[in-house]
Amino acid sequence: MPRPVALAPHDPQWSVRAEARIAELHAAAPGVFCALHHIGSTAVPGLAAKPVVDLLGEAGSLAGIAAARAALEGLGWRWRGENGVAGRRYLTRDDPETGERAAHLHVHAAGDPMIAWHLAFRDRLRAEPETAAAYAREKARCAALHLDDSGAYAACKRAWTDRVAAVAVKP
């Protein structure tokens, strides 16, 4: 069942929550992650977002993340496999008190081009307020069209995000 889309004004606590999740993941799966990053709209100061923290994990190998599955599930992460993106392991975590989605974890093997895509997109939005403002408008447009379907909302934004990230990752 698709989740509804509700954009919220930027909350500085999103970064605090991301750092807490990152520390927790490193402790639960020592040596599995080469790096963990806070990505997505919640990582961009001033940008409205769905109040769901996105994290990007760089794993030494996908076998390593698979071996850590039980430890991650013990923290409340739900394993979703590739979930439509080849080479990714995707996990979600809901708030235990509200049942609302609280975090996404996108894991790729170190060196996967998707890592550069996510980081370049985030960094461009952080560095260019006009690009972040344009993205806020695109997000609002897509949310108005797809209030009851987070998947359709994400698909609506895809061409815009791909275009911006493509410019950001050029050598």
Task: List the defining traits of the structure above.
alpha+beta, Beta Polymerase, domain 2, 5-stranded mixed beta sheet, 5 strands, 47% helix, transferase activity, GrpB/CoaE
What's the helix and strand layout?
Elements: H1 13-28, E1 33-39, E2 53-59, H2 62-67, H3 69-74, E3 77-79, E4 88-94, E5 101-109, H4 113-127, H5 129-145, H6 150-169
Parallel strand pairs: 2-5
Antiparallel strand pairs: 1-2, 3-4, 4-5
End-to-end gap: 40 Å
- Outline: globular
CATH superfamily: Beta Polymerase, domain 2
Please give the CATH architecture. 2-Layer Sandwich
- Number of helical elements: 6
Structural class: alpha+beta
What's the multimeric state? single chain
CATH topology: Beta Polymerase, domain 2
Average of pLDDT: 95
Task: Assign the CATH class.
Answer: Alpha Beta
Strand runs, count: 5
- Order of helices and strands, N to C? HEEHHEEEHHH
- Low-pLDDT residue intervals, each spanning 5 or more residues: none
* Proportion of beta-strand residues: 15-25%
The total domain count is: 1
Estimated helix fraction? 40-55%
Backbone CA Rg: 16 Å
Largest sheet: 5 strands, mixed
Q: Strand order across the biggest sheet?
A: 1-2-5-4-3
GO molecular function: transferase activity
Pfam families: GrpB
Protein name: GrpB-like predicted nucleotidyltransferase (UPF0157 family)
Keywords: Transferase
